[in-house]
Structure formats: structure tokens, C-alpha cells
Amino acid sequence: MNVNKQSRALADQLAAILDERKGQDIVLIDIEKYSIVADGFLLVSGRNTPQVQALADALDEKMAEKGVFARSTEGYATARWVIKDFGDILVHIFHSEDRAFYNLERLWDKGDNMTRYETEI
Questions:
Q1: What are the two backbone dihedrals, phi and then psi, of residue 106, each rounded to the nearest 5 degrees?
Q2: b/e per residue, 26-44, with b = 16+ CB within 10 A?
Q3: Beta bridge partner(s), residue 46
Q4: How confident is the model at residue 37 (pLDDT cuts 50, 70, 90)?
Q5: Which single residue of 24, 73, 84, 121 could bond 45 by disulfide (Cβ 3.0 to 4.6 Å)?
């Protein structure tokens, strides 16, 4: 995993919040070498629509306490796939069914660019 230290620190903070709120299957995908959009995608699943929204709300609340704010948020109203842009890290909060359908891990897996957080936090 080659995500720069600043981006990795941000991803770790975001992942800790998601883990605290019972987000499932938290994965950081390093896309720094493959895209100019961001350094990494942080993926997490929620069991239902209210949990997906609660995960998004928790990120806003906890990161605001640190003076860090999402640049934009998409998909909150339907809460099937919420994307929060934290600059170098894009957080994808999926309803578990939609995550399985879109399977971003399959699209972006390059062999050594994924970190699963459940075993690290």
C-alpha cells in the first residue's frame, strides 16, 4: 500500500469512525497510481438505509470536531450508495446489497493496493 502518509492518516481516522459506528467490511483501496481523482477509496457497508445515513452523519460530526469537512456528499437521500469527498480520500458508504452489485473492489484491485481495516483497527 503506497498511499502517502497524510492520506493514510485521514483514511485511518475515517475508518475508525466507521468502525465505531458498526460499519462493515471497511476497505481502503490505494488508487494514487491509477487515478487523479483521489489517493484512495474508503469503502464500508451498512446493513440498511438508516445505518448508511448514520455512518455518513457520524463522519460529518466527528470530522467537523477536527476541523475537517467533506467537500461534497452524493446519494444521502436514497442512502443506497453515499459518496463523501474528503479530498484525497473518497468514502463510499454502501447498502450491503449495492456494494455486492457494484463490487468496486473487483474493479480497482491491483493485487497489493487494498487494506482491510477490521483486522487493523
A1: -65, -40
A2: bbbbbbbeeeeebbbbbbb
A3: 95
A4: confident
A5: 24
The answer to whether the pTM exceeds 0.85 is: yes
Q: Tens digit of pLDDT for each residue in 43-81?
A: 999 999 999 999 999 999 999 999 999 999 999 999 999
Quick one: which of 62, 43, 46, 51 has its CA closest to 116?
A: 43
What cell was used for 101?
Answer: 452489485
Tens-digit pLDDT profile for residues 82-108:
999 999 999 999 999 999 999 988 878
Is residue 3 a contact partner of residue 32, using CB atoms and an 8 Å limit?
A: yes
Q: In the block, which residue shows the cell 483521489?
A: 38
